[in-house]
Amino acid sequence: MNNNHTSLYSRSELNFVCPDVNSPFYNPNHLLRPEQASQIHNQPPRISIERKPEVLKRTGFSRSTLHNRINQGLFVPPISLGDRAVGWPEHETSAILLAMVAGKAHQEILLLVCSLVESRQQLGNSK
Predict the structure, then answer these.
(1) CA distance linking residue 57 with residue 39, whole number of Å
(2) Residue 57 sits in which domain range?
(3) What is the per-residue pLDDT for 122?
């Protein structure tokens, strides 16, 4: 496995900026009921990876719409699975779909995406 692999979407290439976490409107748990939020903070979710065809089927997006939404910060960028493979954590895709079904505004979905991307580091550090 080559460790020099560059992600298709590096943080500097994305066209969005995560909102200020000190903002009174920032609430990473705004889409969750309190009991769901506590479950997420107490234990990491079961991780299942979806490849692009699965994500496109679940979302109903075209390939270009998926990539546009990633660049706008309205969908999580993929994770590297190897030199030429990427995928999306299923729980992240589900959280975004739930937000869309709930009619959340783009700003709220942007906050959710930022929160999900930031939580990837925490998942990697959990024991």
Answers:
(1) 28
(2) 46-127
(3) 78
Successive 10-residue mean pLDDT values, the chain, 127 residues: 46 56 55 51 71 96 97 95 94 94 94 91 69
Query: What are φ and ψ of residue 72, in 5° steps?
Result: -85, -10
Based on the structure, what is the number of domains in the chain? 1
3 CB-contact burial (10 Å; exposed 0-12 / middle 13-18 / buried 19+): exposed
Q: Rounded to an integer, what distance in angstroms lies between the CA atom of residue 77 and that of residue 13? A: 11
Phi and psi for 47 in degrees, rounded to 5? -95, 125
pTM of the model: 0.67
Is position 29 within any domain? no
